[in-house]
User: Fold this.
Amino acid sequence: MNDNPANTTENRVLATLNADGSRRWLRPRLSVGGFLKARRVVAYALIVLFVLIPYLSIGGKPMLRLNLAEREFSFFGTTFLPSDTLLMTLLMVTLFVSIFLITALFGRVWCGWACPQTVYMEFLYRPIERLFDGAPGKKQRIKGSSGARKVMKHIVFLLCSLALAHTFLAYFVGPEVWTWMLRPPTEHPVAFLIVFVTSALMMLDFGFFREQVCLVMCPYGRFQAALLDRHSLIVTYDEKRGEPRGKKKRHQPVNAGDVSLKVVEDTRGDCIDCHMCVTTCPTGIDIREGLQMECIGCAQCIDACNTVMVKVGKPKNLICYSSQAIMTGESTRFVRPRTLIYPVVLTILLTIFLMVLGGKATAEAQILPRQGSTFYALDGDSEIANQVRMRLVNRSEETITYTITPPEATRLMIDSPEFTLEPSDSEVISFQLVVPAAAFDIQGVFNTSLIITGSDGFEKTLRFRALGPMGHASP
Ligand code: SF4
Ligand code: SF4
Assistant:
């Protein structure tokens, strides 16, 4: 709320700062209207989707998973490995160009309608807050002392944050998150620590930092000036219609010769300067001052102003989704340089992406970092065993049997050097490579390579650096 003249927008550096530099806490008033109802439907559908995505799969592969432990990224049924640098780069650039295109056409529709920060803040945490604290100007729906209500509110915030933290974690580990939840933290201390830290960050974000994430942390709003043009869809105030703003005078008897009051009343615009559009804004700005970096395009001010317009008997959409071009009397153009260039660039990127993906080898074999001890001696120190962790991915459409062949004079400690993988399947294989102690150099290093062959003709040589005790020298 902006009741203090010292906090007028002209004096303000940031919408969430008072003139003296203290935090200006925002408690946006809820404005019910067509856009809020539509955003609610979209938001709750997205919340369900955000929760379900980590458990959905396409063609037997996770729909979306960033598996850090096994260093693979699954995206719509395709698995990307660290060696897929070009594919990943193309994917990222495609994503960025898509964002540019969507922003050029529809402005910050992502921020206001679909960004998890907005969705959870406006449709989960704020409704809970209104339940316990009461909406601005309304009574609390939960009775009790303000201290008890505050504690209860934060307990509910904490439960929500824990749920969000587990959902977030599921994007990295998939359904295994349920196993972790059902076991004591001592069995998986690292995962427990991750959930603890993530929950704390969620509490900090949605309980304290809130809209400042959009205003000071997220870079997207800052690129707005470069990404939008005069024809992009934005939330805007119709200045021609609204100004000069001011409260309408009640009808007063006017002396026959005094026309001044009549003139004042007749020349006022439709904006009655009620500030409803400001008090409902989740980022605390006044849209009547024009397009601002802080505007997330949530349309709350449209709903607020439309309600006012209906009450004062004026047409709706004094604030509306429009474009700067329309507001200055030009006709808006859908086809313009950036809406032509971005789709062309996207088509080129997607074509290269599909060509690179189609031209990839039928399998992927990769040595993974070791876990646990580096090496140990066997057979009275005459042999040294090194742990090898390898990931095999069958990228073909057939079931393939792969064979691991050790280098000359070495042997594998493994049940079978053959592995059969179904199409699109992957497996992390762990075994020991046993090397004669005499093969290591004075630094305790033996550089060698393993050969992986597939029943479809696939062949790959993987370099491996075996380690042993220092001091041996090869004959
Ligand atoms: S809600 Fe509408 S009428 Fe009220 S101040 Fe905002 S623009 Fe003016
Ligand atoms: S100005 Fe309007 S659209 Fe922009 S953030 Fe505020 S309420 Fe949302």
Remarks:
- The chain is about 40% helix and 20% strand.
